[in-house]
Amino acid sequence: DEAAPGVEAEVLAGLALARRRRLGPFRPLAADDEGTSGPDEEGLRQRDLGVLARAGFARDVALRVIGMEAEDAMALVIALKSS
């Protein structure tokens, strides 16, 4: 699944912002969170997408960043930085 280098750079930049702002895969889990999705989860997702959109990221990049699992996000950051 080869993507254009510009898209990968955008994803890396989006992940960097998400990590700094603790969005999406970098959001700390609540102590009482049992892995169930509550009504606030969609609100948080929309908020995170809005932060990325205001920072200038395309919707597809923002959706990709916010939809990642934390382990996948960190692995991608490491892989993209090393290439």
Chart the SSEs and their pairings.
Layout: H1 5-21, H2 39-54, H3 59-66, H4 70-82
Mean pLDDT: 85
Structural classification: mainly alpha
Rg estimate, integer Å: 13 Å
Q: Kindly, what is the distance between the CA atoms of the first and last residues, rounded to a whole number of angstroms?
A: 16 Å
- Please tell me the total number of domains: 1
Helical content stands at: 55-70%
Tally of DSSP helical segments: 4
**Apparent shape:** globular
The total strand number stands at: 0
Uncertain runs: none
Helix/strand order, N-terminal first: HHHH
**Beta-strand residue fraction:** under 5%
Oligomer: single chain
User: Major sheet: size, sense and barrel closure?
Assistant: none
